[in-house]
Amino acid sequence: MAGLSAMEKKLAEYKCNTNEAIHLKLVRFQEDLEDDSMTFHPEFSHQVFGDDEVAFGYKGLKILLYYIAGNLSTLFRIDYSSKVNENFDCVEADDIENKIREIIPPGFNRSIDDFACLLEKDVNFKPFGILLHTYSVHNREAGEDITYQIYKADMTCPGFREYHERLQTFLMWFIETASFIDVDDERWNYFLVFEKYNKDGATLFATVGYMTVYNYYVYPDKTRPRVSQMLILPPFQGEGHGAQLLETVHRYYMLSPTVLDITAEDPSENYVKLRDFVLVKLCQDLPCFSPEKLKQGFSQEMVTEAQQKLKVNKKKQREIAKMRRCLRPEELTNQLNQIDLNLQHKQLDETFQQLVSDYRRVLERLAQV
Asked: Which of 144, 265, 301, 350 is flagged as catalytic?
């Protein structure tokens, strides 16, 4: 295979990994603007820049997307050291400007100075909706407990629609198959997590994460809330906020007599692990899961109480059950016949060991609560 031509090698220098080029930041103080340690990067950018997650035409590319921590007012600017059009003919650089503008709402700032001026206005920002839960997390670095609050909001809250438009842009960078929802559908509920902090003697709020839940109708008089999207922003991950949020949402719906059960839309493996932890934690409050009852072994009574009181959705059957629903009888037989018995045993053992490991992790985490 012939080597690359001199021109191809030169053009290759103008390819940038967009996950590295995008610089995200949540800004609270003036000095945060120059603090590179506060920058974080996307996990995914293929939904904006294509499967290869590459932008062509720039050297030293930096795509700045800074957000004021509370109201999420946005700075968007593109910096680079050189652009392909400046040095080559018949080659066009990617239109990064329009790609980003497709997902961020209008009204963003381009000037860092103008953006910095908006920091003073963030003192007026207050969380939307009704307060559901307050909790604290000990911060070892600061040597103090930090307070967090979870609110339930909807589109009737003044200013929430515009705030949500800015908030949902994070989905494109951190959820692999994310999509924006129809906010005009009144069956959506929004649950928001905020950190309370002090700035010059005033109490301010920083956005931590959120969850969207869609309320499906179940004949004749019930609803089935389905968790659609859940995101804790990277600076706050690993601190237990996801568990606090999911438990708060479960407790909110558990109290409603019209809720049949609570489900999740295409849950990720990490979400399933989190849900297992939260549900086991909630089960500890049920009489059927008392230490005395647990010593007697698992029972149908436990299943019934968990489903009725915690609104737990019945778990779907595993792969063979799925195949029974999706395949014709002859197709199912052929599929099962193709699976070697020894391989089945090996896969079953691997699945069992993984399940044991997952539940051991849940128990260890419960012991730390």
From this structure: 265
